[in-house]
Amino acid sequence: MGYGLTWREMSYDFKLMYIYFVGIIVTFPVGMVLFMDYGQAVSAVFDISVAGILATVVVLLSRRHRRLVDWRWRRPGRRGMLAALAIVAAVAAFFALVALLFPLPIWRPPLLPFLLFGVGIGVFSVLKALGIVAIREVELLDPPDPSLAAVKTPLSRRAWALKLSACALLLLGCVGWFGGALTSLLKPAWISSETQLPLGDLESVALDSQGRIYCGLAFYSRIQVYDEQGRFLRGWWVDGGGGMLRLHMAEGDRLEVEAARKNRVFTFDLNGSLIESNQQTETQRKVSDRLDQLPVTDARGRTYAIRNRFFWPHVVREDQAGRTTVVSTPWYLWPIMGPLPAWIFFAIGLVTLGLTSVRRQQLIARGRRA
Length: 370
Known about the structure:
By secondary structure, this protein is of the alpha+beta class. It has helices at about 10-40, 40-70, 75-100, 110-130, 135-140, 155-185, 280-290, 340-370; strands spanning about 200-205, 215, 220-225, 230-235, 245-250, 255-260, 265-270, 275-280, 295, 305, 315-320, 320-330.
């Protein structure tokens, strides 16, 4: 398992980490079902509860194992302390950015399991740097001299290829997630109205009298417009705060955009110019809720709907002839789309880097035995 590291060679803590990760992954589909049936709050409570229970079980089992093997902590040395501080700083910076863009608590089911997944990786990495946990059981029972951490051991070509692939996935994940989040926050001028962004977190569509399709991209706080054949026309920013955007076409071809996080309704003309911005009233909210339950239909009776909104979002048109995809993310933009697949690329990259680290430790251990 993983470069010759068998299940028996894995440390007890490393096995428990896998159990935690598997449990968090299971919360994703279950949480989505709860979200659809009972709302965001129930889904978030479920995800956090499962993570808390798993973490408690992991800690209790780990403590029991350490008592059985009479484990004693050896200080990690200066390099270990610096590594732990660097990891803490990186994790803190990440969550500070998330808290800035998505004020906690984060009730969004697509994001919360990945944040809990990241918390587990961060905690394990810090504890490993401090010498409290290890990947191999022999390293936990007989820790190496901290001075050997600086030993340079060459990796095989295969390991180097995997390490470079992992770095590439991490880069894609960072560009997709951090780039998209910063884009939503800063709304840079160099991204003009003629620049198409991926359909990240596509939540709502609307149609005007000419058959043009308006898409609300919650992750980027942006509206993008496509013609009847799905060709990109233009886009503009919305001060939505990174939250849900709901689109409705009002009389006179005026586009009303409800920004749930800001609790405001923005009205635009068809060129993206802001006509007015008002605080949303309870009556308007009820009207929006009722409109969201109705299909989006054009003058010819064709209906439009969003499909696969989290991983490969696209808009389909249905009529008597069948279903046709009219708007989708171009293939060259999909790898940098956030929040998904950016989170998946980031997680895979981290796991792969961890496996290459395991391989390096194996080579070091073989060198000491030789």
